[in-house]
Write a structure and sequence with these properties.
- By secondary structure, this protein is an alpha/beta fold.
- It has a single domain, classed as Alpha-Beta Barrel (TIM Barrel).
- The strands form 2 sheets. Strands 1, 2, 3, 6 and 7 form a 5-stranded parallel sheet that branches. A two-stranded parallel ribbon has the order 4-5.
Amino acid sequence: MPSIIIGIAAFLFLLGMEYKTAFLEIYLQGEWKVGSKEVALTFDDCPLEPYTSQILNTLAEHNLQATFFIIGERSVKYPAVIRRMLNEGHSIGNHGYTGMKPALLLKDSTAEGIIHTQNVLKKITGVRPKLLRLPSGIPQRDIKNVVDKENLRMIFANVFIVKERQKTADEIVFHILRHTKSGSIVLLHGDHREMVKALPNIIRGIEKNNLKFVALNQ
């Protein structure tokens, strides 16, 4: 488990047993990597047009599957994009209902948003997702209860870029290729232009290392 998680968990001990326990339970049961010689491309905050469809076009050109973590309110606006993801063999997961950032440790509607997104995606696709990437904020007990009730698989990542949307395409490519290795789950965002520009070079660079792209099973 990354050292930063251990440090944050120690900090949370001072903030109350409820937060600490929920935090540790969620992060310890989460998935941080895939199999040997495999790489999983995952895209958060989807869909947003035209960017997500452009990313899907690039993946189709390379005959690759990825995993998309969906914001519920965006799926209501772009249901056809969600259906296209599934039709083309990609996996989808829950990323909460809104892209707004909840205040640190304050009670918010994150858990309700996860359930709402489950219901919205069930209406669009006919199935309830089994994958979840935690929305921003510190896990609270109500979020842990939703994870257990919905039998969700918590998906994290060991390759990501801080403030990705502020980076150029070349900076994104450089960072991702520098850190991606066998077993990596790569966290990208499917809602901005620089990622669209970066993706072909990311794919080609990873392929040169003889790593296989996989979508996370739902």
